[in-house]
Amino acid sequence: MKPVITVVSAAVGLLLSSVTNAEEITMFDYEEATSAYQDAYLNAQFDLQSGNQDQTSFSTDASANYDQVFSSADRNTRINFVGDTSMSRGSNSDDTTKKNYQALASLTNDMYFNPTRNNAFWYSKAEIGAQTDMVDPFTKLTVGLGYGRVVNATPMAKTIRVVQELQERGLLTGSVSRSTYQDVANIIAREPEYRSHYGSADYAEYWVEDIGKALGVTLGARGAIKSYDVLVNERISTRKYGWLVRAGVGAVLTNYDGSDTKPALELGAEYHYPISNQLQFSNEAILTAVLDDGDNGFNASNAMSLTYELRDNIDWENTWLLNYSESDGSEDLMTNSLKSAFRYYVSNVISLTLTAGLSKTEDHIDYDGTPQTDRNDDIDKTVQLGLTYRLK
Q1: Chain centroid to CA 359: how far?
Q2: Are residues 76 and 148 in contact, defined by beta-carbon separation less than 8 angstroms?
Q3: I want to staple 219 with a disulfide (CB 3.0 to 4.6 A). Which of 61, 203, 223, 232 is the partner?
């Protein structure tokens, strides 16, 4: 009986081993080392209409987004900028050109107390903003405590793509272990280090060569060129996993309306989950309360996104943006915006987007035809063809 049990045990062991080896590598297999990433975009849309109207009407929108994150075991630093401007003119002869802009930049620094034991941290944050018809720029300082960690898993996403391409071309055979994936991802994450050490003109040959060594193969010309193509010429969306919450106190030093310093409270949370190697879900929420005797107010915003990589050069991006503001001296204001966009990457830096959107603003004011009331009672529907230039 014992030989039979031994044979069965061996068979089960081989089966489990084969299942383990065949198990798909995911973003969660990445253990973050020191890394950095940048996302920077310029977006533009333009619309022009003429004929059967008093004058030529037009609308143009341009926006810029910049996000840079430096990550290590004991520190995360994030620099963020969002800005947009618009200009439009109606079709009636008395319609004038309207111009609007708004921009907000922030620097957030998370410092972990003891990263080997838990994910508790303290943070500091500085913000500055500008908008149309402001009296003063918006400036705010915040300090507080938080818990959790968000891991930038983009190096693992790039590793998976490199391995897939090499295997499909027969340049890499056999299974690749998790530890090998991790080693390659760590080298990919160190791209800025290679660039700094070898120079921007020569770093890629050393970088790709070390990736081949980590894979245990000599890439050769075909493998090196394809690896470089995936890492540099393809656009792989930023991938993250994890969550964190934060709470802080601070002060609004100057505000758009020209008011003096006011104390402020801040609550924030974010959650990121790569549902699959092609599908990424993210949600970020923040609530800020400004305390001022007789003029209290708060603003809450939530940004949710779901991005699916249809092909190497086509992404399907879906977003829901919610903003709610309330103050003692004005009506509550809530804006909901839903957008679904197909983004086609003509190259690594240029993409075309086709976007359909719905937006609704609720300000508790009914439109009566006078200039004093905005016409936003109904749902706005838009379809836009846009051009995006990727700076980083």
Answers
A1: 21
A2: no
A3: 223
User: pTM for the full model?
Assistant: 0.79
Rounded Cα gap, residues 360 and 354, in angstroms: 20
Which one is the CATH code of 42-144+239-390: 2.40.160, 3.30.70, 3.40.50, 3.30.160?
2.40.160
Q: pLDDT by residue for the chain (392 residues), tens digit each?
A: 444 444 444 444 443 443 334 457 888 888 876 667 777 878 877 777 776 677 777 777 888 888 888 888 888 999 999 898 888 777 777 777 788 888 999 999 999 999 888 899 999 999 999 988 888 898 999 999 999 999 889 899 999 999 998 998 888 888 888 999 999 999 998 888 888 888 888 888 899 999 999 998 888 888 888 898 888 888 788 899 999 999 999 998 888 877 778 899 999 999 999 998 889 999 999 998 888 766 778 889 999 999 999 888 889 999 999 998 887 666 678 889 999 999 898 877 788 888 888 888 886 666 555 555 555 566 878 777 787 877 66
- Report residue 163 as tokens: 């391995």
Q: Are β-strands 297-311 and 98-112 bridged in parallel, bridged antiparallel, or unpaired?
A: unpaired
Tokens 């930023």 belong to 238
| Pairing status of strand 380-390 against strand 35-49 | antiparallel
210 contacts 190 by C-beta, under 8 angstroms: no
Domain ranges in the chain are 1-30+154-238, 42-144+239-390
Identify the three-state secondary structure at position 277: coil
The one-character DSSP state at 24 is P
Q: How far apart are CA 160 and CA 237, in angstroms?
A: 13
Q: Return d(Cα 346, Cα 349) in angstroms, integer.
A: 8
| Element containing residue 162 per DSSP (H, E) | helix 154-168
Q: Which two tokens stand for residue 325?
A: 């503001």
